[in-house]
Design brief:
The protein is α+β, with helices and mostly antiparallel strands. Helix content is 42%, strand content 16%. The two termini are 31 Å apart.
Length: 191
């Protein structure tokens, strides 16, 4: 059991946000993506609503998602301010990724407050992150300011709330040291 807790501690404490500019061009096998999502499915969930919903972009479908970001830049930018370089950069994070997963919460207002469903999805994402870390895959959860537009583009159901994009890719980033303040600063022991 000690080996198990050491392995768990190591994965938790080595988890980092690794952004797409550090990804290398190496495909993430479908079975690994499925395992990452299967582990997300084991997150805690009040009343077993299992609110997490995922849309997986991989391979050719990444081009469609990247195009959404580029075209949005074109739409909101006045012609005199348009930059071809910025247009291309708008979808670059997506294209550098081995996989991008759109994360949504299916809301059940008749059963639970929204914050509980969002919290459950955040726990699911932590499970994804830890699993990706264990596989040596970098990942990064981003919530750009265009989630409503992204929801419309993807036809996400009205009872769902888009919570962002989860970028994944094998990477060449050096292991970064953890930057955390001591836990003692955050604990009050009740008497």
């Amino acid at each position: 059991m000690e080996q198990t807790i050491e392995a768990v501690n190591n994965v938790i404490r080595s988890r980092r946000s690794i952004q797409p500019q550090n990804y290398i061009q190496k495909e993430i096998p479908d079975d690994i993506i499925r395992t990452i999502l299967e582990n997300a499915n084991y997150a805690p969930t009040h009343k077993l609503t299992e609110p997490w919903r995922f849309i997986v972009f991989k391979g050719e479908s990444l081009k469609r998602l990247a195009s959404f970001f580029s075209e949005r830049y074109r739409t909101i930018t006045p012609p005199e301010s348009f930059s071809q370089a910025k247009y291309e950069a708008a979808g670059e994070k997506v294209l550098r990724s081995g996989c991008v997963i759109v994360i949504s919460a299916e809301l059940h207002p008749e059963k639970l407050p929204e914050w509980e469903e969002v919290a459950a999805v955040a726990c699911a994402v932590q499970n994804m992150w830890l699993t990706a870390t264990a596989y040596g895959i970098g990942s990064y959860w981003s919530s750009p300011g265009i989630l409503k537009e992204l929801s419309q583009f993807l036809n996400i159901n009205e009872n769902q709330k888009c919570l962002g994009l989860y970028f994944m890719g094998y990477h060449d980033a050096a292991a970064a040291p953890a930057r955390r303040t001591p836990i003692e600063n955050k604990i009050t022991w009740a008497e």
